Amino acid sequence: MASSQEENQTQAPSRFAFWVRSGVLTVALFGVGLMVMQFLGKKRKPPRRTKAPALTTQVSTLTIQPRSKLLYIEGFGTVVATQQVRLVPEVSGIVRATVSDFKPGRLVKKGQLLVRLDQQSYALEFRRLQAQQVSLKKQLALGQKALRLDRLTLQRNEQLLRDSAVDKNSVDQMRMRIREREQRQETLRQTLSMTYIQMQSANLQIQRSRIRAPFNARVVSGGVDVGGYAAQGQPLATLESVDSVDIPVGIPQHTLLNWTNDKGELLSPQDIPTWLRKLPRVQVSLGSSPKLRWKGRVVRVGGSLDSQTRTVDLWVRVKLSPKTGGALLTGTYCQVRIPYRRIHGAITLPRQAVYGATVYVVEKGRLQPRRVTVVHRNADSVVIGAGLSKGEEVVTSYLLQPVPGMRVVVQKETNQ
Length: 416
What we know:
The chain has helices spanning 2-43, 120-162, 168-208, 253-257, 272-276; strands at 57-63, 67-78, 80-81, 84-87, 93-98, 107-108, 113-117, 210-212, 217-222, 229-230, 237-241, 244-252, 282-285, 293-301, 311-319, 333-350, 358-363, 366-371, 373-377, 381-386, 393-395, 408-412.
């Protein structure tokens, strides 16, 4: 027991000395490291300071060049025939002859014989009446000669009666004979008049048995074959004109009511076609091919408002030629551009460059807003009438959050 206590007393001082030495060594090493860091820090050169670049946005601009601008109303319409007629026979009969290949798609000329019905009965009646007319004319001529002789005889007998050469009974008989002859002549004249009317009726029936094209046309439906029966009042075929077509284009009601001339004066709807004749013709197109383009004129304004679309039709007429009219068939859906006003000093900008009634210009590398007057909007462009000056640089690229005074880098586009 005594020896164990002595060993514990000996180990306690040695353990304390170890921890003291470790602490002193740690502090010494830390101090040395701190001095080395200070020395190295004094030897290192300080970094160069640079200013952070200012935030800029790259934009595209257009240099303003005001010009005279023709404004268009763009729309779509379906082609309809300018003239359409159904061939309806006015008499009944068997079809004796037709134009060759009388079927849909057949082109016919004005006045061309299309269908001839059986006219034999009408022709026979006409010839009978013609012979009767000749006979009546001869009877009238003979009766007129006899009447003239009877009148001369009456004059002689009246002279003889005054001389007491004949009795009064003979004179009265002659007068009676003349009156009867005059009545027969009148009856013949009436019969001749009725015969003439009947001849005209028979001739009209003959003409009605021949059906001709009323204008240059295309057969669009129907048709008839030789030997078939045509009933009076029953349509044989439908024809549509090929010299011109009409295209109704729906125009918003507010556009029609606010239509003005170059002086800013309001035009009434009935005056619009006359006014548009002073401007270039209407453009009609099918796709982008230059061969599928036509020119036309507005000929009238529709007489009613579409209750669903709130539009009024402008009727465009396009004159066709045999070379260019084949593609513009009825039912074709086409694009129409109607010039309606000329603006002097107008500026055309892309639609994304206009924010309501505001555009942005670049002055000394910074954005500046401009209030403008928009006179016309298209699908992809806007026409400005006032608010910009010649030479100004208008931003044409879309700005997400434009801020007046914001710095921009300009990338110019081709001048207007």
